Amino acid sequence: MNKAHTSISSYLSKAKKGSILFPTDFRSMGTEGAIKMALSRMVKEGKLKRLAHGIYYVPKTDPLLGELHPGAENIAEAIAQKEKILIRPSGASALNKLGLSTQVPTRLVYITNGSPRKIKIGRMTVVFKATTSKKLAMEGPISGLVIQALEELDLANIHSETAKKIRGLLMKENPVKLKHDLTLAPARLHDYIMKLLNEKDDDRMVETDN
Questions:
Q1: Distance CA 109, CA 76 (A)
Q2: pTM for this entry
Q3: Which residues of 53-166 form beta strands (DSSP E)?
Q4: pLDDT tens for each residue of 153-173
Q5: Residues 49, 17 contacting (CB under 8 angstroms)
Q6: Residue 76 to residues 73, 143, 145: CA-CA distances in angstroms?
Q7: Is 128 helix (H, G, I), strand (E, B) or coil?
Q8: Which of 38, 97, 122, 156 has its CA 20 to 30 A from that of 71?
Q9: Each residue of 66-104: pLDDT tens digit?
């Protein structure tokens, strides 16, 4: 048993169950080849599970539910944290996260300032799409998602019930952050959101002029 295998085995014995890990987490424990071989061996021994190329997790079991697998969203967030990049749900992923779509997407799409790529995880595909710093500068946890979700929709054909839900979500956003994000939104989305917000409840109207 080589040094890398012994060191990684010791590390895993103390690691939190369900932790998502990458080969770079073990760089101080041996050469790239030795680490790769050790991780492969750990998978065979059942001490690690392979989620995708270069992505592993420490097995976690629930007495009732059995083995618990990390979700694709958790994996995307772990990658972002590891690589120190920003990611934001986009398109259908944003719609689903906001509860505006009941369909469970088989592709989770994120805009990012990192490298574009596709990661196959079981039946799911995580997509990182390079974008501009402007789109990642949105501050509102709700308004930023809404703007990304609206990019996916034909504004002229949004059902009245969906529009009502969108308005309800935006009304929960911090007004300062909402105003900030509206200044970054494409003109057509800005105008659509302003129309929604100004339909009723004049006390929550968003002023965009200085």
A1: 10
A2: 0.83
A3: 55-57, 61-62, 66-67, 87-89, 107-112, 117-121, 124-130
A4: 899 999 999 999 999 999 999
A5: no
A6: 5, 21, 16
A7: strand
A8: 38
A9: 888 898 999 999 999 999 999 999 988 899 899 888 777
